[in-house]
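Project outcomes to date are best conveyed with an example. Our students and postdoctoral researchers have been running inverse folding experiments weekly, and each run begins with a structure described purely in tokens. The record below, which covers 625 residues, was selected by the lab manager from last quarter's runs and is presented without edits.
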């Protein structure tokens, strides 16, 4: 009976586990080791063939596998190592600095570590590493050499495994206790014990030797620690004795004999070095190339250093001079194929996301690992928040933002960061500017409305009659007979002035008006000494002809109605402007001009796309918690 119940429980557990496994499609972020299977097989085999050819070429000692981050360099190398792990021809040694960190205190104080500055410059800037930093990197490489193989393979090495600090501390404490007790016995400081118990005669001699041995061991321990200091100064009267630890020496060169012995004893002949390029410094590469040269001069078997580095690690022709062979890796994903790749391989994950939105978002994807993590986190967020019935596109946008700007995302829950600033300070600034613009428009319309009310003339004919009278009267003061005037090389009879004539004259109002008394194009006087500006001066109006023409046209019922409607619309907008989402506030604004505003923070293009289209909006708190 118990067995039946147990089997039933096991079946239930399997069913539950299967539900958990099938609930989400897991996309591992770690580099793959099975590119020789599936769709990537054909592409991988081309890289494999080039690696085999390079490793078999006797003149090649330094190989570079180059590509951008996330292009698949590690996956290619992992697959190659797995496939040829049992191959007696190559014995691989992995050196990775992916988890290696340099203490921030070792960096120069004036160094700007903000990686976002990289996007502001097309030129790669080499990081200046201090000698101490390079020593730390070399020490990490050296440790990975000797910890990669069992101790019994390198029995003659001076580097031994660390047995543990706890045991060392216990031994040190025991030595101190023995030193104190033996010292008390040897220097006869135990009278109170002798008063109770008589000590044997041989005990002081034993105490002397114990005291001497413990003193020597503790002194050795003290000196070994002291030599880790940068410099020790001992003064004896007028003499000075210095013990200086050379921090600038190369750890690799200093232990060259150990390294040569390591390769000779272990038979390692392919050293795969990854993540060394993240320090943006070529000096460590130079030291490793020198080390490779020394190893190949000393060892009978050829040793190849195989580097996985980013494309822009070396400038100009340095890369081709440093490596004997270079294998470029074509990225699996880039902005042009990201959408198709996601739709093909992850259709179940992005099935509910708007296709147009996804296509535009994919224009910023260029790292396969980052894309996989975005898809994983999107599933998690969607699963946790699905009961809130949130917009799938907005969930995806928040996850993309979280992966591209994780530091800023972490500040959101404490009301800090760029997003918080955009939907608070920047939005308030936009509202203030909009209020100012609307207020100015209202003022302009009210002024226009006042001008309409103040305009005494009721029609365009009346306006033209007034200007015709003043124009003809000015010309006839000096010339009795005037039959026509010349306007833009055309003859206009003095009785046929209209708004087109006056608008043309207004466009060159300071030019003297020509006229003819014979109504013939062959007899023009040079000038009438009259300009249209003189006519404007006689009207006793602060407005020019075109402005008065527009006012009179607006006097009709439709014009006044339009003005009233515009005025009402602007006042309504003024009352509702504070409740508008930032998406609407940005509709009538030149984005390029906005980003140049000193009061507006630098907003990345991708984030601006989300905000302008409302994929990240004022409701973002619902999507982050």
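After processing, the design step wrote out the following sequence:
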């Amino acid at each position: 009976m118990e067995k039946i119940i147990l089997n039933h429980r096991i079946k239930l557990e399997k069913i539950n586990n299967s539900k958990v496994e099938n609930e989400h499609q897991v996309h591992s972020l770690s580099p793959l080791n099975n590119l020789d299977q599936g769709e990537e097989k054909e592409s991988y085999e081309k890289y494999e063939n080039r690696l085999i050819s390079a490793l078999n070429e006797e003149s090649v000692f330094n190989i570079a596998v180059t590509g951008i981050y996330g292009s698949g360099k590690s996956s290619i190398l992992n697959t190659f190592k797995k496939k040829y792990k049992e191959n007696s021809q190559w014995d691989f040694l992995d050196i990775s600095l992916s988890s290696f960190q340099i203490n921030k205190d070792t960096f120069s104080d004036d160094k700007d570590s903000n990686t976002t500055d990289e996007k502001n410059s097309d030129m790669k800037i080499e990081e200046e590493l201090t000698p101490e930093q390079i020593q730390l990197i070399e020490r990490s490489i050296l440790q990975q050499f000797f910890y990669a193989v069992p101790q019994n393979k390198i029995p003659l090495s001076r580097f031994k495994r660390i047995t543990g600090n706890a045991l060392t501390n216990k031994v040190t404490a025991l030595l101190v206790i023995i030193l104190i007790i033996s010292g008390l016995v040897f220097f006869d400081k135990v009278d109170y014990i002798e008063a109770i118990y008589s000590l044997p005669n041989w005990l002081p001699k034993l105490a002397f030797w114990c005291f001497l041995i413990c003193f020597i061991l503790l002194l050795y321990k003290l000196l070994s620690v002291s030599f880790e200091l940068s410099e020790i100064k001992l003064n004896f009267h007028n003499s000075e004795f210095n013990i200086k630890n050379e921090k600038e020496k190369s750890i690799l060169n200093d232990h060259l004999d150990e390294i040569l012995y390591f390769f000779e004893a272990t038979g390692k002949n392919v050293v795969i070095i990854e993540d060394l390029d993240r320090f943006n410094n070529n000096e460590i590469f130079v030291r490793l190339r020198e080390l490779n040269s020394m190893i190949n001069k000393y060892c009978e078997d050829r040793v190849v250093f195989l580097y996985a580095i980013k494309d822009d690690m070396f400038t100009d022709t340095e890369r081709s001079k440093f490596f004997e062979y270079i294998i470029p890796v074509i990225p699996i994903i880039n902005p042009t194929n990201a959408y198709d790749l996601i739709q093909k391989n992850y259709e179940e994950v992005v099935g509910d996301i708007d296709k147009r939105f996804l296509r535009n978002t994919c224009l910023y994807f260029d790292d396969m690992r980052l894309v996989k993590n975005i898809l994983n986190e999107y599933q998690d967020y969607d699963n946790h928040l699905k009961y809130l019935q949130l917009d799938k596109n907005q969930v995806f946008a928040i996850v993309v933002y979280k992966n591209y700007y994780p530091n800023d995302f972490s500040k959101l829950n404490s009301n800090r960061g760029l997003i918080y600033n955009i939907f608070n300070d920047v939005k308030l600034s936009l509202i203030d500017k909009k209020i100012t613009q609307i207020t100015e428009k209202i003022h302009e319309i009210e002024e226009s409305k006042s001008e309409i009310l103040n305009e005494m003339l009721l029609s365009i004919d009346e306006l033209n009659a007034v200007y015709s009278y003043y124009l003809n009267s000015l010309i006839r003061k000096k010339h009795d007979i005037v039959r026509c005037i010349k306007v833009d090389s055309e003859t206009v009879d003095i009785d046929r002035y209209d708004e087109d004539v006056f608008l043309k004259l207004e466009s060159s109002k300071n030019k003297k008006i020509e006229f003819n008394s014979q109504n013939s194009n062959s007899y023009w006087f040079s000038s009438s000494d009259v300009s249209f500006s003189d006519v404007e001066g006689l009207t006793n109006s602060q407005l020019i002809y075109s402005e008065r023409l527009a006012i009179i046209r607006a006097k009709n019922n439709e014009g006044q109605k339009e003005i009233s409607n515009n005025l009402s619309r602007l006042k309504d907008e003024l009352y509702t402007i504070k409740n508008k989402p930032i998406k609407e506030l940005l509709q009538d604004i030149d984005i390029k001009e906005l980003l140049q505003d000193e009061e507006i923070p630098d907003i990345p293009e991708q984030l601006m796309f989300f905000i302008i289209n409302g994929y990240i909006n004022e409701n973002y708190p619902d999507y982050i918690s």
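The first strand starts at residue 62 and ends at 66. The beta strands are 62-66, 92-96, 231-236, 239-244, 270-274, 304-309, 325-328, 484-487, 490-493, 514-516. The training component of this project remains on track.
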